[in-house]
Amino acid sequence: METNHIKTGGGPVIRTTGLTRHFTRNKQTIEAVRGLDLEVAAGELVAFLGPNGAGKSTTLRMLTTLIAPTAGSAEVAGHDVVADRAAVRRSIGYVGQGNAAGHQFRGRDELICQARAHGLSRRDARMRSDQLLEAFDLGEHADRPVSQLSGGQRRRLDVAIGLVQEPAILFLDEPSTGLDPQNRVNLQEQVRRLNQELGTTIVLTTHYLEEADALAGRVIVIDHGKVIADDTAAGLKSALGDLVSMDFADADAAHAAAQRADRIPGAQVTVTDSHVAVRVPFGRDAAPGLVAELAGAGMPIARLEVVGPTLDDVFLNLTGRSLRESDNTGPVVDGAATEGEAA
Ligand SMILES: Nc1ncnc2c1ncn2[C@@H]1O[C@H](COP(=O)(O)OP(=O)(O)OP(=O)(O)O)[C@@H](O)[C@H]1O
After folding, report:
1. Which residue ranges does the record assign to the ABC transporter domain (predicted)?
2. Is residue 126 in a domain?
3. 231 and 258: one domain?
4. Which runs of E-coded beta strand occur in the chain?
């Protein structure tokens, strides 16, 4: 069976330069994506993490040729997303936020139909659909109408449909939104396997911190249309450092302790009454020495806690707001848009 896997020679399979997209709504310009410079190498599993409205989906829709950039450029699989849309589309799979499958069809028919649309022979289409049904644990549900599948089963079918033509690059827009934790983990497992076993480059968007943390080799944090951090989850967290929280008998002891903590390289110290919080790289290693030093100086610690950072702490540190809180803005309503999507 023919596949669309590409030999990249290790170069980037996605490259954007100043990628920008504006929308006009109620005569106001919305700068959804603002000058994105990005490179993704073959075989990477990348998560775009950010709150609602950060510009994640808009970026994905430009990379998948669904909408055109207002400015800047992007190449996917070596093809320009504007000049060479058809070639880009041949190289990618895309699973959007809505359900792709027609509700009255059976899952198996949907897959076969998509495979035929991608040029597979009847026999190959049937084989490919069987493979995908098995890989996504959908075998026993394959002959039920899509409308009768659970949310998790339907989402897995969506991802299977995105994989019909064995794309070299797969884009997943919020693949696990709306799934219960068990289905979320199951889907993440499939995505991970796809990346590891087939080497498929995967770019997904998520606003689940845990998902970005668990799944992606690389996390690109997006806020207000801009990349504000780009590293492994571990890298992002270790750059921020651990939080060492200490309580003392009184405010004087806390202030004296804060002065000492301030001498630790890279420490950010805040004092509130008798409480001292120290954010410091490798805080768990620095804490015992600090405790001993303070005890020796007659300032014993009444309570000590060392907590490793979460990606939410990273986001909070970068933006001054919590990703969990910024995420409660509800879904974006596109209905009032005055600028349509490219066909
Ligand atoms: N078709 C459109 N017309 C007008 N404004 C739009 C349109 N699509 C997106 N926007 C606006 O662009 C900004 C970025 O939206 P986008 O959907 O890319 O964010 P997101 O990070 O993917 O958020 P979500 O997690 O909710 O999908 C938002 O302010 C949104 O309201």
Report:
1. 14-249
2. yes
3. no
4. 12-25, 28-41, 45-49, 71-76, 79-80, 92-95, 169-173, 201-206, 218-223, 226-231, 242-247, 268-272, 275-280, 303-307
